[in-house]
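Q: What would this chain look like folded?
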Amino acid sequence: MSAYRDSQRGLIGTAGRTVAQHLHNPYYTLSNKFEAIQPVGRQLVSFSSTVAYNSTPQRLQVSPGQFEELLNKGATYDELEQQVDLSSFYTHQAVSITKGIKQWTFTPQFGFQVQNQKLESELVKVQHQDETAQERLFQNNLDWESRKYYGQLDVRYKAKYWEMTAKLPLGLQSFEFQDKPLNRKHEVNRLITEPHLSLKYDVTPLWRARASVQVANQFGNIEQMNYAYILRDYRHLQLNNSPLQERLLQRYTLGLSYKNALTSFFSNLSYSFSTTESNLIYQNNLQQNGALVVTALDFTSTALSHTIGLQTSKYFSELQTTLAVGTNLYLDEREQILNQGLAKVQNQNLAFHLKTNTSITEWLGVDYTSTISTLKNIVEAGASRRATQQEHHLSANIYPADRHYIGLTTELYHNDFSKQNPSSFFGDLLYRYTFERKKLDMELKWVNISNVSAYTYSYNDAFTFVQSTYRLRPSQLLLSFRFSL
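A: My prediction, written as C-alpha coordinates:
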Protein backbone atom coordinates (compact mmCIF):
# COMPACT_ATOMS: atom_id res chain seq x y z
CA MET A 1 0.00 0.00 0.00
CA SER A 2 1.36 3.41 -0.89
CA ALA A 3 0.16 6.98 -1.29
CA TYR A 4 1.80 9.75 -3.25
CA ARG A 5 0.88 13.43 -3.03
CA ASP A 6 2.19 15.80 -5.65
CA SER A 7 1.47 19.38 -6.62
CA GLN A 8 3.21 21.30 -9.39
CA ARG A 9 3.08 24.97 -10.33
CA GLY A 10 4.60 26.66 -13.33
CA LEU A 11 4.66 29.90 -15.32
CA ILE A 12 5.02 29.58 -19.08
CA GLY A 13 5.92 32.40 -21.43
CA THR A 14 4.35 31.67 -24.82
CA ALA A 15 3.11 33.77 -27.75
CA GLY A 16 3.89 37.01 -25.93
CA ARG A 17 1.93 36.24 -22.78
CA THR A 18 2.35 34.41 -19.50
CA VAL A 19 0.36 31.24 -18.77
CA ALA A 20 0.07 29.79 -15.25
CA GLN A 21 -0.40 26.05 -14.81
CA HIS A 22 -1.21 24.29 -11.53
CA LEU A 23 -1.44 20.49 -11.28
CA HIS A 24 -2.70 18.39 -8.35
CA ASN A 25 -1.48 14.86 -8.99
CA PRO A 26 -2.08 12.43 -6.09
CA TYR A 27 -1.68 8.68 -6.54
CA TYR A 28 -2.93 5.85 -4.33
CA THR A 29 -2.28 2.14 -4.79
CA LEU A 30 -2.97 -1.11 -2.97
CA SER A 31 -1.43 -4.30 -4.33
CA ASN A 32 -0.50 -7.87 -3.47
CA LYS A 33 1.87 -10.19 -5.31
CA PHE A 34 2.40 -13.89 -4.66
CA GLU A 35 4.78 -16.36 -6.30
CA ALA A 36 5.50 -20.00 -5.50
CA ILE A 37 7.63 -22.71 -7.13
CA GLN A 38 6.99 -26.33 -6.27
CA PRO A 39 8.92 -29.35 -7.64
CA VAL A 40 6.63 -32.15 -8.81
CA GLY A 41 8.66 -35.16 -9.85
CA ARG A 42 11.22 -33.89 -12.36
CA GLN A 43 9.13 -30.84 -13.23
CA LEU A 44 8.90 -27.42 -11.63
CA VAL A 45 5.40 -25.98 -11.18
CA SER A 46 5.17 -22.22 -10.73
CA PHE A 47 2.20 -20.18 -9.49
CA SER A 48 1.97 -16.39 -9.67
CA SER A 49 -0.78 -14.03 -8.59
CA THR A 50 -1.00 -10.24 -8.83
CA VAL A 51 -3.87 -8.08 -7.58
CA ALA A 52 -3.74 -4.27 -7.60
CA TYR A 53 -6.03 -1.28 -7.15
CA ASN A 54 -5.02 2.27 -8.17
CA SER A 55 -6.69 5.65 -7.89
CA THR A 56 -5.51 8.95 -9.40
CA PRO A 57 -7.81 11.94 -8.78
CA GLN A 58 -6.18 14.81 -10.70
CA ARG A 59 -6.94 18.49 -11.22
CA LEU A 60 -5.28 20.80 -13.72
CA GLN A 61 -5.81 24.58 -13.76
CA VAL A 62 -4.58 26.80 -16.59
CA SER A 63 -4.94 30.58 -16.61
CA PRO A 64 -5.68 32.48 -18.70
CA GLY A 65 -7.85 30.01 -20.57
CA GLN A 66 -6.45 28.44 -23.74
CA PHE A 67 -7.95 27.23 -27.05
CA GLU A 68 -10.20 30.28 -27.34
CA GLU A 69 -11.37 29.50 -30.88
CA LEU A 70 -12.66 26.07 -29.92
CA LEU A 71 -13.91 26.73 -26.40
CA ASN A 72 -15.01 30.40 -26.26
CA LYS A 73 -15.76 31.58 -29.82
CA GLY A 74 -12.39 33.29 -30.08
CA ALA A 75 -12.84 35.47 -26.99
CA THR A 76 -10.39 35.47 -24.08
CA TYR A 77 -11.42 34.10 -20.70
CA ASP A 78 -9.84 33.71 -17.26
CA GLU A 79 -9.25 30.03 -16.53
CA LEU A 80 -9.63 26.49 -17.80
CA GLU A 81 -9.92 23.68 -15.26
CA GLN A 82 -9.67 19.95 -16.01
CA GLN A 83 -10.73 17.38 -13.42
CA VAL A 84 -9.93 13.70 -14.01
CA ASP A 85 -10.60 10.77 -11.69
CA LEU A 86 -9.22 7.42 -12.87
CA SER A 87 -9.61 4.23 -10.82
CA SER A 88 -8.33 0.81 -11.84
CA PHE A 89 -8.52 -2.79 -10.63
CA TYR A 90 -6.16 -5.35 -12.14
CA THR A 91 -5.47 -9.05 -11.58
CA HIS A 92 -3.17 -11.53 -13.31
CA GLN A 93 -3.19 -15.24 -12.42
CA ALA A 94 -0.86 -17.77 -14.07
CA VAL A 95 0.51 -21.29 -13.69
CA SER A 96 3.44 -22.83 -15.58
CA ILE A 97 5.31 -26.13 -15.72
CA THR A 98 9.00 -26.42 -16.65
CA LYS A 99 10.30 -29.67 -18.11
CA GLY A 100 13.84 -30.37 -19.33
CA ILE A 101 14.68 -33.06 -21.88
CA LYS A 102 18.40 -33.24 -22.67
CA GLN A 103 19.26 -29.97 -24.43
CA TRP A 104 15.64 -28.85 -24.60
CA THR A 105 13.57 -26.99 -22.03
CA PHE A 106 9.78 -26.68 -22.39
CA THR A 107 7.65 -24.34 -20.30
CA PRO A 108 3.90 -24.29 -21.03
CA GLN A 109 2.04 -21.51 -19.24
CA PHE A 110 -1.66 -20.74 -18.82
CA GLY A 111 -3.25 -17.69 -17.27
CA PHE A 112 -5.69 -14.81 -17.48
CA GLN A 113 -5.67 -11.05 -16.95
CA VAL A 114 -8.64 -8.86 -16.02
CA GLN A 115 -8.69 -5.08 -15.77
CA ASN A 116 -11.64 -2.89 -14.76
CA GLN A 117 -11.29 0.88 -14.99
CA LYS A 118 -13.47 3.95 -14.65
CA LEU A 119 -12.62 7.36 -16.09
CA GLU A 120 -14.57 10.44 -15.01
CA SER A 121 -13.55 13.85 -16.30
CA GLU A 122 -14.97 17.36 -16.50
CA LEU A 123 -13.60 20.37 -18.37
CA VAL A 124 -14.76 23.68 -16.88
CA LYS A 125 -14.43 27.23 -18.22
CA VAL A 126 -14.15 29.87 -15.49
CA GLN A 127 -14.67 33.65 -15.44
CA HIS A 128 -13.40 35.10 -12.14
CA GLN A 129 -15.36 38.37 -12.19
CA ASP A 130 -18.53 36.33 -11.75
CA GLU A 131 -18.31 33.54 -9.15
CA THR A 132 -21.21 31.72 -10.78
CA ALA A 133 -19.71 31.94 -14.29
CA GLN A 134 -18.47 28.35 -14.51
CA GLU A 135 -19.46 26.57 -17.68
CA ARG A 136 -19.09 22.79 -17.90
CA LEU A 137 -17.83 22.19 -21.40
CA PHE A 138 -17.00 18.49 -21.82
CA GLN A 139 -17.52 15.43 -19.62
CA ASN A 140 -16.43 11.80 -19.82
CA ASN A 141 -17.94 8.95 -17.82
CA LEU A 142 -16.26 5.87 -19.27
CA ASP A 143 -16.40 2.30 -17.95
CA TRP A 144 -13.70 0.00 -19.30
CA GLU A 145 -13.16 -3.73 -18.99
CA SER A 146 -10.49 -5.84 -20.69
CA ARG A 147 -9.91 -9.58 -20.42
CA LYS A 148 -7.17 -11.81 -21.74
CA TYR A 149 -7.06 -15.61 -21.57
CA TYR A 150 -3.90 -17.14 -22.93
CA GLY A 151 -1.70 -20.16 -23.27
CA GLN A 152 2.00 -19.94 -24.09
CA LEU A 153 4.74 -22.43 -24.85
CA ASP A 154 8.33 -21.35 -24.21
CA VAL A 155 10.99 -23.51 -25.87
CA ARG A 156 14.73 -23.27 -25.28
CA TYR A 157 17.44 -25.25 -27.01
CA LYS A 158 21.09 -24.94 -26.00
CA ALA A 159 24.01 -26.65 -27.72
CA LYS A 160 27.74 -26.05 -27.61
CA TYR A 161 27.70 -23.00 -29.87
CA TRP A 162 23.99 -22.43 -30.51
CA GLU A 163 21.16 -21.20 -28.35
CA MET A 164 17.58 -20.87 -29.52
CA THR A 165 14.57 -19.54 -27.62
CA ALA A 166 11.02 -19.33 -28.87
CA LYS A 167 7.83 -17.96 -27.31
CA LEU A 168 4.64 -19.24 -28.92
CA PRO A 169 1.60 -17.61 -27.30
CA LEU A 170 -2.05 -17.86 -28.28
CA GLY A 171 -4.64 -15.73 -26.55
CA LEU A 172 -8.16 -14.35 -26.62
CA GLN A 173 -8.29 -10.61 -25.94
CA SER A 174 -11.60 -8.84 -25.34
CA PHE A 175 -12.52 -5.21 -24.60
CA GLU A 176 -15.79 -3.66 -23.57
CA PHE A 177 -16.16 0.05 -22.89
CA GLN A 178 -19.07 2.45 -22.75
CA ASP A 179 -19.94 6.02 -21.86
CA LYS A 180 -23.65 5.96 -21.00
CA PRO A 181 -24.25 9.74 -20.85
CA LEU A 182 -22.70 10.11 -24.32
CA ASN A 183 -24.48 6.97 -25.59
CA ARG A 184 -21.29 5.31 -26.79
CA LYS A 185 -20.54 1.59 -26.45
CA HIS A 186 -18.03 -0.72 -28.13
CA GLU A 187 -16.97 -4.35 -27.89
CA VAL A 188 -13.81 -5.80 -29.44
CA ASN A 189 -12.77 -9.47 -29.47
CA ARG A 190 -9.52 -10.64 -30.99
CA LEU A 191 -7.71 -13.97 -31.27
CA ILE A 192 -4.04 -13.02 -31.11
CA THR A 193 -0.72 -14.76 -31.57
CA GLU A 194 2.59 -13.07 -30.82
CA PRO A 195 5.52 -15.35 -31.72
CA HIS A 196 9.04 -14.35 -30.70
CA LEU A 197 12.10 -16.23 -31.97
CA SER A 198 15.73 -15.47 -31.08
CA LEU A 199 18.99 -17.17 -32.08
CA LYS A 200 22.49 -16.82 -30.62
CA TYR A 201 25.66 -18.26 -32.11
CA ASP A 202 29.13 -18.22 -30.57
CA VAL A 203 31.35 -17.58 -33.59
CA THR A 204 34.45 -17.83 -31.39
CA PRO A 205 34.90 -17.79 -27.61
CA LEU A 206 35.02 -13.97 -27.86
CA TRP A 207 32.48 -13.19 -30.60
CA ARG A 208 28.73 -13.81 -30.48
CA ALA A 209 26.14 -13.17 -33.20
CA ARG A 210 22.42 -12.92 -32.53
CA ALA A 211 19.18 -12.41 -34.43
CA SER A 212 15.55 -12.16 -33.44
CA VAL A 213 12.09 -11.79 -34.95
CA GLN A 214 9.09 -10.55 -32.99
CA VAL A 215 5.41 -9.96 -33.72
CA ALA A 216 3.30 -8.07 -31.16
CA ASN A 217 -0.28 -6.86 -30.96
CA GLN A 218 -0.68 -3.55 -29.13
CA PHE A 219 -4.04 -2.17 -28.08
CA GLY A 220 -5.09 1.22 -26.82
CA ASN A 221 -6.00 1.91 -23.22
CA ILE A 222 -8.64 3.91 -21.40
CA GLU A 223 -6.53 7.06 -21.51
CA GLN A 224 -6.82 6.97 -25.31
CA MET A 225 -10.61 6.52 -25.40
CA ASN A 226 -12.12 9.83 -24.30
CA TYR A 227 -15.22 10.70 -26.34
CA ALA A 228 -15.15 14.29 -25.07
CA TYR A 229 -12.17 16.64 -24.93
CA ILE A 230 -9.59 16.32 -22.14
CA LEU A 231 -6.98 18.98 -21.43
CA ARG A 232 -3.57 17.25 -21.08
CA ASP A 233 -1.63 20.46 -20.37
CA TYR A 234 -1.67 24.11 -21.44
CA ARG A 235 -0.52 23.05 -24.92
CA HIS A 236 -2.52 19.86 -25.63
CA LEU A 237 -6.27 19.34 -25.89
CA GLN A 238 -7.16 15.79 -26.93
CA LEU A 239 -10.24 14.03 -28.31
CA ASN A 240 -10.30 10.30 -29.11
CA ASN A 241 -13.80 9.82 -30.49
CA SER A 242 -12.73 6.78 -32.50
CA PRO A 243 -12.50 2.97 -32.40
CA LEU A 244 -10.05 1.18 -30.12
CA GLN A 245 -6.52 1.61 -31.36
CA GLU A 246 -4.98 -1.62 -32.67
CA ARG A 247 -1.36 -1.79 -33.75
CA LEU A 248 0.54 -4.70 -35.29
CA LEU A 249 4.28 -4.49 -34.63
CA GLN A 250 6.90 -6.51 -36.50
CA ARG A 251 10.51 -6.13 -35.35
CA TYR A 252 13.70 -7.66 -36.80
CA THR A 253 16.99 -7.38 -34.93
CA LEU A 254 20.60 -8.29 -35.71
CA GLY A 255 23.53 -7.99 -33.34
CA LEU A 256 27.21 -8.76 -32.92
CA SER A 257 29.09 -8.57 -29.61
CA TYR A 258 32.68 -9.00 -28.46
CA LYS A 259 33.61 -9.84 -24.85
CA ASN A 260 37.15 -10.28 -23.57
CA ALA A 261 37.26 -10.52 -19.80
CA LEU A 262 41.05 -10.89 -19.74
CA THR A 263 41.63 -7.51 -21.40
CA SER A 264 38.43 -5.97 -19.99
CA PHE A 265 37.29 -4.95 -23.46
CA PHE A 266 33.64 -5.19 -24.50
CA SER A 267 31.81 -4.06 -27.63
CA ASN A 268 28.31 -4.41 -28.99
CA LEU A 269 26.78 -3.55 -32.39
CA SER A 270 23.05 -3.82 -33.08
CA TYR A 271 20.55 -2.99 -35.82
CA SER A 272 16.78 -3.05 -35.56
CA PHE A 273 14.06 -2.52 -38.17
CA SER A 274 10.38 -2.37 -37.29
CA THR A 275 7.06 -1.73 -38.99
CA THR A 276 3.95 -0.71 -37.10
CA GLU A 277 0.52 -0.80 -38.72
CA SER A 278 -2.24 1.10 -36.91
CA ASN A 279 -5.95 1.41 -37.53
CA LEU A 280 -5.91 5.04 -36.34
CA ILE A 281 -4.18 8.22 -37.40
CA TYR A 282 -4.02 11.39 -35.35
CA GLN A 283 -5.15 14.73 -36.74
CA ASN A 284 -3.09 17.57 -35.30
CA ASN A 285 -4.37 21.14 -35.54
CA LEU A 286 -1.57 23.47 -34.55
CA GLN A 287 -2.60 26.94 -33.39
CA GLN A 288 -0.57 30.12 -33.73
CA ASN A 289 0.44 30.15 -30.06
CA GLY A 290 1.81 26.57 -30.28
CA ALA A 291 -1.24 24.94 -28.68
CA LEU A 292 -2.24 21.63 -30.22
CA VAL A 293 -5.69 20.07 -30.65
CA VAL A 294 -5.32 16.30 -31.24
CA THR A 295 -8.13 14.16 -32.67
CA ALA A 296 -7.97 10.44 -33.50
CA LEU A 297 -9.43 9.33 -36.84
CA ASP A 298 -10.31 5.90 -38.22
CA PHE A 299 -7.55 5.63 -40.87
CA THR A 300 -5.01 2.86 -41.50
CA SER A 301 -1.40 4.06 -41.32
CA THR A 302 2.06 2.50 -41.26
CA ALA A 303 5.21 3.66 -39.47
CA LEU A 304 8.76 2.53 -40.24
CA SER A 305 11.78 2.88 -37.96
CA HIS A 306 15.48 2.00 -38.06
CA THR A 307 17.77 1.93 -35.02
CA ILE A 308 21.54 1.42 -35.07
CA GLY A 309 23.60 1.28 -31.88
CA LEU A 310 27.29 0.82 -31.11
CA GLN A 311 28.76 0.65 -27.57
CA THR A 312 32.34 -0.06 -26.54
CA SER A 313 33.97 -0.09 -23.09
CA LYS A 314 37.47 -0.75 -21.76
CA TYR A 315 38.86 -0.96 -18.22
CA PHE A 316 42.41 0.37 -17.72
CA SER A 317 43.71 -1.30 -14.58
CA GLU A 318 46.82 0.84 -14.27
CA LEU A 319 44.62 3.95 -14.15
CA GLN A 320 41.70 2.29 -12.33
CA THR A 321 39.48 3.80 -14.99
CA THR A 322 36.62 2.51 -17.13
CA LEU A 323 36.07 4.28 -20.44
CA ALA A 324 32.87 3.73 -22.44
CA VAL A 325 31.87 5.31 -25.77
CA GLY A 326 28.82 4.76 -27.92
CA THR A 327 26.55 6.13 -30.61
CA ASN A 328 22.89 5.69 -31.52
CA LEU A 329 21.07 6.57 -34.73
CA TYR A 330 17.26 6.53 -34.88
CA LEU A 331 15.25 7.09 -38.07
CA ASP A 332 11.47 7.20 -38.07
CA GLU A 333 8.93 7.76 -40.84
CA ARG A 334 5.15 7.93 -40.43
CA GLU A 335 2.01 9.67 -41.69
CA GLN A 336 0.21 12.40 -39.78
CA ILE A 337 -2.73 14.68 -40.51
CA LEU A 338 -1.47 18.21 -39.87
CA ASN A 339 -3.90 21.13 -40.17
CA GLN A 340 -6.34 19.11 -42.33
CA GLY A 341 -3.66 17.74 -44.69
CA LEU A 342 -2.02 14.30 -44.85
CA ALA A 343 1.73 14.68 -44.43
CA LYS A 344 4.70 12.30 -44.32
CA VAL A 345 6.87 13.05 -41.29
CA GLN A 346 10.48 11.99 -40.74
CA ASN A 347 12.49 12.17 -37.52
CA GLN A 348 16.25 11.72 -37.33
CA ASN A 349 18.05 11.51 -33.98
CA LEU A 350 21.80 10.98 -33.74
CA ALA A 351 23.58 10.81 -30.38
CA PHE A 352 27.16 10.24 -29.17
CA HIS A 353 27.90 9.11 -25.59
CA LEU A 354 31.04 9.15 -23.45
CA LYS A 355 31.37 7.85 -19.89
CA THR A 356 34.34 7.46 -17.54
CA ASN A 357 34.64 6.13 -13.99
CA THR A 358 37.92 6.68 -12.16
CA SER A 359 39.03 5.65 -8.67
CA ILE A 360 41.94 8.03 -8.08
CA THR A 361 42.49 6.92 -4.48
CA GLU A 362 40.59 4.94 -1.88
CA TRP A 363 38.88 8.13 -0.74
CA LEU A 364 38.36 9.91 -4.08
CA GLY A 365 36.40 8.85 -7.16
CA VAL A 366 35.45 10.87 -10.24
CA ASP A 367 32.67 10.14 -12.76
CA TYR A 368 32.09 11.93 -16.07
CA THR A 369 29.36 11.45 -18.70
CA SER A 370 28.74 13.36 -21.90
CA THR A 371 26.06 13.24 -24.58
CA ILE A 372 25.98 15.18 -27.84
CA SER A 373 22.75 14.76 -29.81
CA THR A 374 21.37 16.12 -33.06
CA LEU A 375 17.63 16.25 -33.72
CA LYS A 376 16.14 16.76 -37.16
CA ASN A 377 12.48 16.91 -38.18
CA ILE A 378 11.21 16.90 -41.79
CA VAL A 379 7.55 17.37 -42.75
CA GLU A 380 6.54 16.25 -46.26
CA ALA A 381 10.05 16.66 -47.71
CA GLY A 382 9.81 20.37 -46.97
CA ALA A 383 11.73 22.66 -44.67
CA SER A 384 13.53 20.89 -41.87
CA ARG A 385 14.66 22.00 -38.44
CA ARG A 386 17.92 20.76 -36.97
CA ALA A 387 19.06 21.28 -33.40
CA THR A 388 22.15 20.16 -31.53
CA GLN A 389 22.45 19.98 -27.77
CA GLN A 390 25.14 18.82 -25.37
CA GLU A 391 25.00 17.47 -21.82
CA HIS A 392 28.06 17.10 -19.60
CA HIS A 393 27.97 15.68 -16.07
CA LEU A 394 30.98 15.62 -13.73
CA SER A 395 30.83 14.36 -10.14
CA ALA A 396 33.38 13.74 -7.40
CA ASN A 397 32.85 11.41 -4.42
CA ILE A 398 35.12 12.20 -1.47
CA TYR A 399 35.44 10.20 1.75
CA PRO A 400 37.85 12.31 3.88
CA ALA A 401 37.29 10.31 7.10
CA ASP A 402 35.16 7.58 8.56
CA ARG A 403 31.41 8.47 8.47
CA HIS A 404 32.12 11.64 6.45
CA TYR A 405 31.17 12.11 2.81
CA ILE A 406 31.47 15.06 0.41
CA GLY A 407 29.83 14.96 -3.01
CA LEU A 408 30.24 17.54 -5.77
CA THR A 409 28.08 17.32 -8.89
CA THR A 410 28.25 19.67 -11.89
CA GLU A 411 26.19 19.81 -15.07
CA LEU A 412 26.75 21.77 -18.27
CA TYR A 413 24.10 22.11 -20.98
CA HIS A 414 24.68 23.77 -24.34
CA ASN A 415 22.51 24.14 -27.46
CA ASP A 416 22.63 25.94 -30.79
CA PHE A 417 18.99 27.03 -30.99
CA SER A 418 18.42 29.27 -27.97
CA LYS A 419 19.60 32.86 -28.23
CA GLN A 420 18.80 33.74 -24.61
CA ASN A 421 20.13 30.60 -22.86
CA PRO A 422 22.56 28.74 -25.14
CA SER A 423 24.57 27.45 -22.15
CA SER A 424 23.68 26.60 -18.56
CA PHE A 425 25.98 25.44 -15.78
CA PHE A 426 24.75 23.87 -12.54
CA GLY A 427 26.61 22.75 -9.46
CA ASP A 428 25.55 21.15 -6.16
CA LEU A 429 27.65 20.41 -3.09
CA LEU A 430 26.66 17.83 -0.47
CA TYR A 431 28.14 17.04 2.94
CA ARG A 432 26.90 13.99 4.87
CA TYR A 433 27.76 12.80 8.38
CA THR A 434 26.56 9.41 9.61
CA PHE A 435 25.89 8.87 13.31
CA GLU A 436 26.95 5.26 13.71
CA ARG A 437 24.93 4.21 16.76
CA LYS A 438 21.73 6.12 16.02
CA LYS A 439 21.44 5.08 12.34
CA LEU A 440 21.03 8.74 11.52
CA ASP A 441 22.41 10.75 8.58
CA MET A 442 22.74 14.51 8.62
CA GLU A 443 23.01 16.18 5.20
CA LEU A 444 23.83 19.77 4.30
CA LYS A 445 23.34 20.55 0.61
CA TRP A 446 24.19 23.67 -1.35
CA VAL A 447 21.92 23.65 -4.40
CA ASN A 448 22.56 25.67 -7.56
CA ILE A 449 25.96 27.00 -6.53
CA SER A 450 26.30 29.21 -9.61
CA ASN A 451 22.79 30.68 -9.08
CA VAL A 452 21.56 29.91 -12.62
CA SER A 453 18.15 31.43 -13.27
CA ALA A 454 17.00 29.57 -16.44
CA TYR A 455 17.48 26.33 -18.38
CA THR A 456 16.45 25.54 -21.99
CA TYR A 457 15.50 22.04 -23.18
CA SER A 458 14.26 20.83 -26.57
CA TYR A 459 12.86 17.68 -28.14
CA ASN A 460 11.10 16.63 -31.32
CA ASP A 461 8.08 14.35 -31.68
CA ALA A 462 6.04 13.14 -34.63
CA PHE A 463 5.94 16.51 -36.40
CA THR A 464 6.93 19.32 -34.02
CA PHE A 465 10.09 20.74 -32.58
CA VAL A 466 9.49 21.92 -29.00
CA GLN A 467 11.76 24.26 -27.09
CA SER A 468 11.07 24.97 -23.42
CA THR A 469 12.85 27.36 -21.06
CA TYR A 470 12.50 26.71 -17.32
CA ARG A 471 13.05 29.31 -14.62
CA LEU A 472 14.96 27.85 -11.66
CA ARG A 473 15.08 28.46 -7.94
CA PRO A 474 17.97 30.64 -6.75
CA SER A 475 20.97 29.25 -4.88
CA GLN A 476 19.95 27.79 -1.51
CA LEU A 477 21.10 25.69 1.45
CA LEU A 478 19.14 22.64 2.61
CA LEU A 479 19.63 20.82 5.90
CA SER A 480 18.05 17.39 6.23
CA PHE A 481 18.13 14.33 8.49
CA ARG A 482 17.58 10.72 7.39
CA PHE A 483 17.04 7.77 9.66
CA SER A 484 16.09 4.11 9.39
CA LEU A 485 13.71 2.31 11.73
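The mean pLDDT is 88.
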